[in-house]
């Protein structure tokens, strides 16, 4: 049993960036007319545009995570021949305990 | 402590930070039921996909010191800083993936010190484990101290609260989900750092008129400092002569000291990064881990060095007072700028990147940028903590304090060590604040201990005749040689003391970096020679016992089953060619 079989990391990443994207986009829209606020970012409404980028990235990861749910992450770890060999030697040497 | 912070945050900035905190805590919470055995806790059950371990590999190294420090170097040395990536990281990352991972992963060692136990003996393992454990705690403490101070200066946050809150968050998620939790959050933090800093670079480049505008402005700075006009924008052109570049290093010291000894010593032997590869799901995945990590690593100079370079020449807004561009001057206790021996203002380069964030990002994006900074800090800290608890539990506790206990007991010990490690790191942060010199001294000692490491591993893995006595004595004499070399030399313009020269003065280096590189070279060569000499006169181990641990006695991992694009060496070659191309572009 391992950690990877329980939670697909793409889902929390997707969720985080979707929320951050929505927050920034919303804030960018709300402050769109405020020239003073965006003077420092060379008059670019960075919140709006970068918020949209984050949103797109977040949705992409959510989609990837749900699309392969239970498929990609469910296979067990594969062992190589040399790995098993050294694992049994580790056992003989008593390194496990 | 300054009374007026540089900037104030809006509500939206705090909301963004809060969302990030919820996400990292949520990941730990989501993994709480999946940590049942010590292998789950310390090695993620060896079950993670290579893109995950690869991004964690790079993210664990991408601590706040990296983000802040490389920005500072960018402002101080210009594009030369890219050598820490293109010379000082990529070749070693390719090497560890292609040639060393078969032994780390294939031997089923659970930590780097444990590999030394399997290959050599108990004393070599213990030497490495103890120095590594102490080092992770202190470096974690030093970066915590730097972060607390920075947040206090920028935002006026309480030093104590900043440290305590971030330590508790890291504690919570590592305790619940072990290494998996740390790695998952490192992946999350990786993306956050990229998305937080990329717009800063874009905006900054726009403000200075692109690479051409930046080059032109940096040429003026270089000329004003009596350096060739290309000193800050060309990585190799001025390296023939140490006096013609801002770092005071010549190419041989750079390539051998940084590119070979220090870089291979860190990327190929440091458990903090190797642990991520050990958590991979298969041998191929473990070998691909550092290779996948090398791709973003190759591009990081643009993300972390450029902001510093831009900060030096950006004139919109003002850093106030005697600084240059956005980089403020270092202030004495009475508020006046500090001057160097030539009467020039000393700049506080560590503030280069943070000042860029504060001056270019509007509310909202500022929250994202600061969250990225916090993320880099936490990923570095969690990396240290997870490496510490593993080495403590397996290599110190299990082998010296309590053998033969149940797996549940070691899992419990791992959790205790997590708490203990974080408590010690917080304590170290306060020690760093109170006694700056002690910290400088400790970091010096760690540098001495680390410098010879790669000689031991290279001989151990590729020369089967190497013995445990050889490795142990080689390491000790390499460390001693580093101390002696450092004690007999000084960087130009420094007084004898923590900077060197405490045993007398034989040679003066043009800069501190040059001294560091040559100290490493001396340590490495000494360790290499002593290990060989002692190995030859001591009794070798039975080759049968070394199967899977030494190159000539281990079957090559076969890649035939993989399609050719997925083969590790193909990826390795691609990474090296691209790195070479980057060096040529910025030659």
Write structural notes for this entry.
With 97 residues, chain A is an all-alpha fold. Chain A contains three helices and no strands. Chain A has one domain. The longest helix of chain A is centred in the middle third of the chain and has 22 residues, at 46-67. Residues 71-78 of chain A have low confidence and may be disordered. In chain B, helix 1 (11-30) crosses helix 9, helix 8 (122-155) packs antiparallel against helix 15 (365-401) and helix 13 (283-313) packs parallel to helix 21. Chain B is 68% helix and 1% strand. Chain B starts with 10 loop residues before the first helix and ends with a helix. In chain B, strands 1-2 form a two-stranded parallel sheet. Chain B has helices at residues 11-30, 38-43, 50-61, 64-77, 83-86, 90-106, 112-119, 122-155, 159-208, 210-224, 251-267, 271-278, 283-313, 352-360, 365-401, 407-434, 436-450, 453-462, 468-488, 512-537, 568-585; strands at residues 489-491, 507-509. Chain B has two domains: 11-120 and 177-376 and 557-585, no CATH class; 437-555, no CATH class. Chain B is globular and about 70 Å long. At the A-B interface, helix 1, helix 2 and helix 3 of A face helix 1, helix 6, helix 7 and helix 9 of B.
Q: Which strand order does the major sheet of chain B show? A: 1-2
Task: Compute the number of strand runs of chain A.
Answer: 0
Number of domains of chain B: 2
Number of strands of chain B: 2
Oligomer: heterodimer
Give the proportion of residues in helices of chain B.
Answer: 55-70%
Major β-sheet profile of chain B: 2 strands, parallel
Q: What does the overall shape of chain B look like?
A: globular
Query: Secondary-structure element sequence of chain A?
Result: HHH
Number of helices of chain B: 21
């Amino acid at each position: 049993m391992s950690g990877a079989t329980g939670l697909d990391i793409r889902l929390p990443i997707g969720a985080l960036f979707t929320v951050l994207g929505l927050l920034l986009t919303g804030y960018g829209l709300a402050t769109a007319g405020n020239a003073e606020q965006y003077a420092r970012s060379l008059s670019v409404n960075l919140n709006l545009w970068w918020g949209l980028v984050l949103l797109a990235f977040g949705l992409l990861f959510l989609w990837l995570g749900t699309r392969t749910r239970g498929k990609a992450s469910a296979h067990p770890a594969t062992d190589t021949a040399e790995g098993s060999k050294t694992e049994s030697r580790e056992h003989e040497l008593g390194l496990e305990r | 402590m300054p009374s007026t912070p540089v900037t104030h945050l809006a509500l939206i900035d705090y909301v963004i930070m809060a969302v990030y905190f919820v996400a990292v805590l949520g990941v730990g919470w989501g993994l709480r039921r999946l940590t049942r055995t010590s292998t789950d806790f310390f090695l993620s059950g060896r079950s993670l996909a290579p893109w995950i371990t690869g991004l964690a590999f790079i993210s664990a190294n991408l601590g706040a010191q990296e983000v802040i420090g490389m920005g500072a170097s960018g402002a101080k040395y210009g594009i030369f800083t890219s050598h820490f990536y293109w010379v000082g990281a990529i070749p070693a990352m390719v090497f560890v993936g292609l040639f060393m991972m078969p032994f780390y992963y294939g031997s089923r060692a659970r930590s780097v010190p444990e590999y030394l136990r399997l290959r050599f003996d108990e004393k070599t393992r213990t030497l490495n484990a103890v120095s590594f454990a102490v080092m992770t705690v202190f470096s974690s403490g030093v970066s915590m101290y730097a972060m607390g101070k920075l947040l206090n200066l920028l935002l006026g946050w309480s030093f104590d609260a900043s440290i305590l809150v971030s330590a508790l968050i890291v504690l919570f998620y590592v305790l619940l989900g072990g290494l998996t939790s740390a790695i998952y959050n490192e992946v999350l933090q990786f993306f956050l750092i990229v998305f937080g800093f990329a717009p800063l670079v874009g905006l900054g480049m726009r403000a200075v008129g692109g690479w051409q505008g930046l080059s032109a402005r940096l040429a003026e700075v270089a000329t004003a400092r009596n350096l060739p006009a290309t000193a800050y924008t060309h990585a190799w052109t001025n390296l023939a002569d140490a006096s013609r570049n801002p770092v005071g290093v010549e190419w041989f010291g750079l390539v051998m000291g940084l590119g070979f000894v220090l870089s291979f010593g860190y990327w190929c032997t440091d458990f903090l990064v190797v642990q991520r590869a050990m958590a991979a799901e298969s041998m191929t995945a473990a070998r691909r881990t550092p290779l996948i990590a090398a791709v973003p690593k190759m591009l990081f100079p643009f993300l972390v060095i450029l902001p510093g370079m831009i900060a030096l020449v950006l004139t919109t807004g003002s850093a106030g007072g005697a600084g240059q561009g956005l980089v403020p001057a270092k202030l004495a206790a009475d508020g006046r700028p500090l001057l160097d021996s030539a009467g020039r203002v000393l700049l506080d380069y560590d503030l280069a990147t943070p000042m860029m964030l504060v001056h270019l990002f509007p509310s909202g994006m500022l929250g994202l940028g600061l969250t990225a900074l916090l993320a880099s800090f936490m990923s570095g800290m969690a990396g240290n903590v997870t490496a510490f608890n593993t080495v403590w539990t397996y290599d110190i506790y299990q082998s010296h304090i309590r053998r033969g206990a149940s797996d549940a007991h070691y899992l419990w010990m791992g959790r205790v060590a997590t708490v203990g490690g974080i408590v010690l790191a917080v304590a170290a942060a306060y020690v760093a604040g109170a006694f700056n010199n002690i910290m400088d001294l400790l970091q010096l000692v760690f540098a001495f201990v680390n410098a010879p490491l790669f000689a031991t591993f290279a001989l151990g893995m590729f020369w089967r005749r190497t013995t445990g006595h050889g490795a142990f004595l080689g390491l000790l004499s390499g460390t001693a040689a580093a101390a002696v070399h450092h004690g007999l030399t000084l960087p130009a313009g420094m007084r004898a003391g923590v900077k060197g020269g405490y045993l007398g003065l034989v040679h003066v280096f043009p800069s501190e970096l040059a001294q560091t590189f040559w100290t490493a070279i001396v340590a490495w060569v000494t360790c290499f020679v002593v290990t060989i000499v002692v190995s030859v006169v001591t009794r070798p181990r039975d080759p049968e016992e070394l199967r899977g641990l030494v190159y000539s006695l281990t079957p090559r991992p076969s890649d035939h089953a993989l399609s050719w694009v997925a083969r590790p060496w193909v990826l390795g070659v691609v990474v090296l060619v691209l790195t070479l191309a980057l060096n040529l572009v910025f030659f």
